[in-house]
Amino acid sequence: MRGKEANKVRGGYLGLSGSVLLGAAFLMATSAIGPGFLTQTAVFTEKLKSAFGFAILSSVLIDIAVQLNIWRILGVSGMRGQDVANRVLPGLGYFLAFAVALGGLVFNIGNVAGAAMGINVVAGVPLVPGAILSSTVAIALFLRKEMGKAMDNFTKALGILMIALVLFVALKTQPPVGLALKETLLPSTVDWMTVLTLVGGTVGGYITFAGAHRIIDAGVTGTNRLAEISRGSVNAIGITAIMRYLLFLAILGVVVSGKALDPENPPASAFLLGAGQIGYRFFGVVLWSAAVTSVVGASYTSISFLKTLFRSVDTHQRRWIIAFILTSTAIFSTVGKPVKLLIFAGAVNGLILPLSLLSVLLAAHRKDIVGDYEHPKLLTLLGYVMVAFTGWMGVTSLSKIAELFK
Description:
- The chain has one domain (about 25-405): Amino acid/polyamine transporter I (Up-down Bundle), CATH 1.20.1740.
- It contains 18 helices and no strands.
- The protein has helices at about 5-30, 35-50, 50-75, 80-90, 90-125, 125-145, 145-175, 175-185, 190-205, 205-215, 225-255, 265-305, 310-315, 315-335, 340-365, 365-370, 375-395, 400-405.
- Helix 7 runs antiparallel to helix 12 (about 265-305) and helix 15 (about 340-365) packs antiparallel against helix 17.
- The longest helix is centred in the last third of the chain and has 42 residues, at about 265-305.
- The chain starts with a helix and ends with a helix.
- The relative contact order is 0.20.
- It is found in: Membrane.
- This is Transmembrane transport protein.
- Keywords: Membrane, Transmembrane, Transmembrane helix.
- One of its GO terms (cellular component) is plasma membrane.
């Protein structure tokens, strides 16, 4: 095959690959951008003011190091996180799979709640009907014949919509952009616990695996695809960073004017104070978009951790994903948001990143997993540093479990 025919095939191949990688990037990014992401950003902006920009920049650099390690090694091996973990230490993959599934289910209850609240803000729909409607939208994606493509397009569309709406609010609140940029590079205050909290919320738990497992499902694997995989992993963090920084600027414009955010719902009050009723409605759209895409990401990734360990899950993946969403919705509709379960899931979630990252780093030097691939030494070093930091945070978070039994 030569000339135009070869170029046509190559162009179609790269176009399909590029579409999958962009979809995987948005899936990972929108999985990170959930209700907690919005609240976290509002609270830290009010606390640190312009200096929060440095925390965002620092967390982004750390996120890139973590994401590159995981995406590159899984992408080269063509194996999902649980399978790599089981190769490194038999049984570890089962622990990670159940931890991700448990954490994903509990956090999905919060995501369903966020989606319901978003519809309530926009249209006044009561919470339970709003939760059912939102879950129906998510389930519809997984009923499509081309499930992966539908998921990619959905997360891309809502991701772009969220960025556009937050940009509008940022323009309305008129934040001190010059001061924010200065403090991003030369901060007056540095809070490393805030940085690590942002890292945990961006690449912790199942989140970084959402995109990595998506590219594996699409067959974008192997050393010959390494450049594309690396680019896709950085793009995912870039999308999250853009959303975080625009949200920071939008809220900064409110807090520097001397207005106090409502502690009951900091991000909603920021949008209301900054852009009036239209800003409040926009917040509802952003909240719904953030929550429903997180429902999609959490459900898909949680089941992807189980599919290679249990034949029935692999054979009936769609049904398991739909059952996962229905269970989350049923628990929210009947019980509400179980606070103790959320605390427990948060503590377990804190152990997932250090354990999964450690297993991936150890796999990077196993020829039976990655073949002749040589993982960059700098990425390896940065990866082990993050294992230590996130491991410390994970052990600290275990103390929260003790509070459940007091």
